[in-house]
Amino acid sequence: MIIHHVEKPGCGTLAQLHADCFPRGWSALELAELLAEPGMISLSEGRPKARGFILCRVVLDEAEILTLAVARECRGLGIGHALLDQAVSRAELAGAKSVFLEVSTRNEAAITLYTKCGFVRGGLRRDYYADGSDALVMEKTLRE
Ligand SMILES: CC(C)(COP(=O)(O)OP(=O)(O)OC[C@H]1O[C@@H](n2cnc3c(N)ncnc32)[C@H](O)[C@@H]1OP(=O)(O)O)[C@@H](O)C(=O)NCCC(=O)NCCS
Question: Where are the alpha helices (DSSP H) in the chain?
C-alpha cells in the first residue's frame, strides 16, 4: 500500500471519488481550496489513480478528520484503516492532543472502523445530515 501527500493536480480524481462516496460531493475547486488551508493533512492511497483519501485539519492541539473516502471497488482491503492511522500519526506529530470527527449514526462501516482505530463515542448532533440522520461525534485522545 502506497500512501502519499495529495497534490493539487490530483483534485479532479479525488473529487470524482468523493462524489461517488457521499450524497453531496466536493468539487475539484473546493478540494483544492481545502488543501491550501493551514494545518491540512491530505493523504491518498494508490498511484496513478487514487483508491482512497483522507483530509485532516490540525488547529492548535486539536485535529479534525474532515473526510475519508475509499472507492467502492477497493473497500475491505485495509485502505481506510491505513489512511486513518497515517493521518492520526501525522496529526500527533503536528501537535494534536486529540482527534475528533463526525459520522452518521447510520454509517456502520465507518463507526466500526473508527472504533477499531481507538475512537470513542461522544455526543450526538440531531438531524445533522441532509438525509435526516444524526451525527455521532467520535474522539481519540492522543496525549493528555
Ligand atoms: C468507511 C470506509 C472509509 C472504510 O474503508 P475501507 O478501506 O473499506 O475499510 P478497511 O478495509 O480499512 O476496514 C477496516 C475495518 O473497518 C471495519 N469495516 C470496514 N467496512 C465495514 C463494513 N462494511 N461493515 C462493518 N465494518 C466494516 C472493519 O472493522 C474493518 O476491519 P476488518 O476488515 O479487519 O474487519 C469506506 O467504507 C467508505 O469510503 N465509505 C464511504 C464514505 C464514508 O462513509 N466515509 C466515512 C465518513 S465519516
Answer: 11-21, 28-35, 79-93, 108-116
What's the 117 CA to ligand 1 centre distance in angstroms? Answer: 11
Report pLDDT for 48. 84
Separation between Cα atoms, residue 14 and residue 33, nearest integer Å: 13
Q: Which atom of ligand 1 is nearest to the CA of 83?
A: 12
- Which tens digit of pLDDT belongs to each residue from 81-96? 999 999 999 999 999 9
- CATH code: domain of residue 50: 3.40.630.30
**Cα separation of 31 and 43, whole Å?**
12
Which residues of the chain fall below pLDDT 50? none
| Structural domain that includes position 123 | 3-141
